[in-house]
Amino acid sequence: METVMEDEEYNYREVKLPSLIPVAPEPELERETGERRRGRDVIIAIDHGPNSKHAFDWTLVHFCRLADTIHLVHAVTDLKNQILYDTSQGLMEKLAVEAFQVAMVKTVARVVEGDPGKVICQEAERIKPAAVVLGSRGRGFIQREVLECTACTTVKQHLL
After folding, report:
1. Torsions phi, psi of 77, nearest 5?
2. Which of 15, 34, 97, 122 is surrounded by the fewest CB atoms within 10 Å?
3. What is the domain range of residue 41?
4. Where are the alpha helices (DSSP H) in the chain?
5. What are the tens digits of pLDDT across the range 113-136?
6. Residues in domain UspA (predicted)?
7. pLDDT at res. 152
8. Beta-strand runs (E) in the chain
9. For the chain, what is the largest distance between any 2 Cα atoms, rounded to a whole number of angstroms?
């Protein structure tokens, strides 16, 4: 079976995050080389559900380092719906402030129109992140294992 490449355009809107978040200090120098550490890019798929919030919190506490950049991605069905966009923007702003307060990481947010699976893969291909974090959507142990396996396979296909 061969992978089908899609060259379709996708619509997105960058979310302007509040400027009240202080700028993170420059990352410290590496001991051996004397060069600045480059942070990792981490994509977190966000929606308005509790599992997405749990994945976000877990990433901040267990994965993020000071120089990292978190890319919040929210997939919506209609980008022209201003109410939907405003609600998503409010959520992203709240999460960006929390990310800075908890882990002092930079946050970039984007609302993208389309199927969540395709949107996440397109963003992963564009950003080339160190990690893509997804919530379990309330699934049990077996279903969660299948989701992780599918997510790994999908991301590997798009990044390799």
Report:
1. -80, -35
2. 34
3. 12-18+33-159
4. 50-62, 82-103, 116-127, 141-159
5. 998 888 898 999 899 999 999 887
6. 41-146
7. 56
8. 12-15, 41-45, 69-76, 106-113, 131-133
9. 51
On whether residue 63 sits in a domain, the answer given is yes
Locate tokens 């966009």: which residue? 85
- Report how far residue 29's alpha carbon sits from residue 159's, in angstroms, rounded to the nearest whole number: 29
Q: How many domains does the chain have?
A: 1
CB 92 within 8 A of CB 74: yes
Q: How far is CA 15 from the centre of its chain?
A: 13
Q: How far is CA 91 from CA 48, 84, 127, 138, in A?
A: 8, 11, 22, 20
Per-residue pLDDT, 113: 92
Q: How far apart are CA 13 and CA 17, in angstroms?
A: 12
- 119 with 88: CB under 8 angstroms? no
- The residue ranking higher by pLDDT, 135 or 74, is 74
Q: Is residue 24 part of a domain?
A: no
Which CATH number do you get for residue 138? Answer: 3.40.50.620
pLDDT of residue 3: 42
Question: Is 3 domain-assigned?
Answer: no
Average pLDDT of span 2-7: 46
pLDDT band at 138 (very low <50, low <70, confident <90, very high): low
Determine, yes or no, domain membership for 6: no
Q: Which residues have a Cβ under 8 Å from the Cβ of 142 and sit 6 or more positions away?
A: none
